[in-house]
Amino acid sequence: MFVEEDELNADPNKYVVMNSNTMTWKNTSCKGFSYKLLEKVVDPRKGRSTALIKLDPGTTLPTETLDERCDILVLEGELNDGHSLHGTHTFIRSQPGDLQTLSSQTGCVLYLKRRKPIRKTDTDRLLIDAKKSNGNLTRHVAPEYFTFTAISMALRLRAWLMSTPTSRFLPMTMQWETKPL
């Protein structure tokens, strides 16, 4: 996906801060698809890339068979991944070999991380809608998809989202909106 980019923030022992507000969206050869690269590590065993992805309204990317695990968090808008439609604050994990067709009729901004599988148990697709869960993930995630890490992450994300009632991040503009108390 980010083939032309060199390694970026590849040293895990270094503290890194990137202000995405000052970064420009990089266009790609696919019309309506742009990104801001946050991390890229070239390694056959532990390779990964992390980026903010923007799909303009009406954009559909070509179908691909994933070579690596792909984690997506929908920050704004609605995303169709070829399986179903996902709204804001939905976490999707797809595994190597899965087919993926990213599209958005409304436009969306995504946090996307691609990496080699970490454990042998990472073989199932995972879907968590943090806005709908109300702390009870069993209604929204099939039992075979449960892993401690994913549930823990979803609960932390939901707690963070609910702890900031007076402000919200608007990824399309890369700005924070603050509401008076």
Question: Could you walk me through the main structural features you see in this protein, from its secondary elements to its overall organization?
Answer:
With 181 residues, the protein is mainly β. It has one domain (26-178): Jelly Rolls. It contains two helices and 15 strands. The protein has a seven-stranded antiparallel β-sheet. The protein has a two-stranded antiparallel ribbon with strand order 4-11. The chain has a two-stranded antiparallel ribbon with strand order 5-10. A hairpin with a 6-residue loop joins β2 and β3. Mean pLDDT is 76; it is low at 136-152 and 169-176.
Low-confidence stretches: 136-152, 169-176
What is the chain-wise order of helices and strands? EEEEEEEEEEEEEHHEE
Tell the overall outline. globular
How would a textbook summarize the main sheet? Answer: 7 strands, antiparallel
Overall mean pLDDT score? Answer: 76
Strand order of the largest sheet: 1-2-3-12-6-9-13
CATH architecture: Sandwich
Q: How much strand? A: 35-45%
Total domain modules: 1
**CATH superfamily placement:** Jelly Rolls
Q: Structural class of the secondary structure composition?
A: mainly beta
Roughly what percent helix? 10-25%
How many strand units?
15
Taking Cα atoms only, what radius of gyration do you get, to the nearest Å? 16 Å
CATH topology heading: Jelly Rolls
